[in-house]
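Appendix B. Raw example, untouched.
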Amino acid sequence: MKRLLTSCFGLGRLPVAPGTWGSIGPAVIFAILCNTGVSATVTSVVMAVLVVVGSIVCITCSGVAVAATGRQDPGEIVADEFAGQSLVFLAVGAVANVPLWVVVLGGFLLFRLFDITKPWPIRRLEKLPNGWGVLADDLLAGVYAAITLLLCLRVGGAALANGNIGFETGQLTVLSAAVLGAVQGLTEFLPISSSGHLVLFETFFKFDPETPQMILFDLAIHVGTVAAIFVVFRKPIGAFFRNLAASGKYIGNVEGNLVRCGTFVELYRKSPSVHLLVLGLLATFVTGVFGLLLEKHLIAAWGSLHTVAVMWVVTGTILLIADFRKKTRISLRRFAMWQAAVIGFAQAVAIMPGISRSGATICAAILIGWHRRWAVEFSFLLAIPAIMGATVVKLIQDADKINPQVLPLASVLTGSIVAALVGIVALKLLIRASRSAKLKFFAFYCYLMACFVLLYLLR
């Protein structure tokens, strides 16, 4: 019974994102109360009761699940997410002149963001004894989410009340910057194609990404996504540079100059960092060469929704095929140059709208036989020069259009920070999905988006 209560009657036992399912309950209850005309006082009382009930269940009953699973904070315990999410809506409440769906969706997404990323000092609270460690981090995540949501509504509430998000007028408001940053953070890393979603934005919101204001903003949020890569992969990146700095120990007693061919071959074979660096440079070179060649032939199809729909089907199919590949055990030392070249070519093909860069590179590595961990890490280490290189090229090509004076500083900071935070969550989600062979869920999303686009074209 105690495990049933801490799992919110089985929500914590769901195989995918149990914490997310545990957070949905308070959001649905809050939406129903506000939508049925219940007074603000009654709504606040109900949310306060949910916070108290979730907290008591978590503190008194979570010890059973901890003992049964052997984990300090087992995933099946979602009473803590239930309490933390309820705390968000207790603190925020219904905001006047702001659509209810904005408050509900914003509160839900922000809580999940802080609960997953766990900025300081949330993660430290997990070390508290007994059920307090399970509960305290989620309550603080709820406080962070409530404060952030209130600040966002204070800044963008007037625009929402007037129905002015900013896409239609070409004005980059704080709200539109946050939306675009979130879309960039999600679609750049999740295998669902950022370019395909950009085409949808252009179509449905009459959004023009080629205005001077938007070109500079696009560069800024790409910097935010690169920052997310450094945050999530800070340990592998740190280990890479430490090993690279100590590569001299792999040379042995070879006589002569270190630049000799034989010495370099020995370093390539024995030093993991040198080996990975060579493969990364080769893959990046292949991406650059084939990317430029493909762009000349494919650029005409860039704005076509028909192309996006077809390529989403292709992306979904590749993700499904990669999930069926079970034996993926090639280690770092066995990576061959031709394999890196194939992954670089896969990244170049992702210039097509609807083809996901992360999906193409990860699936190519998995199908070659690379271990799933290395497939993900190599894909996103490869993304750093790819994203930064594309950003520099865009900056050079559109240098005459860019005017920093027309770009609001608040919008730039908002978009970049949101892109980085959402990117961190997206990266962690993709890492978990790829290592557990659950890329199929992203494949289903791609198929749904393809069907949506085709139905729109046939209307």
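End of appendix B.
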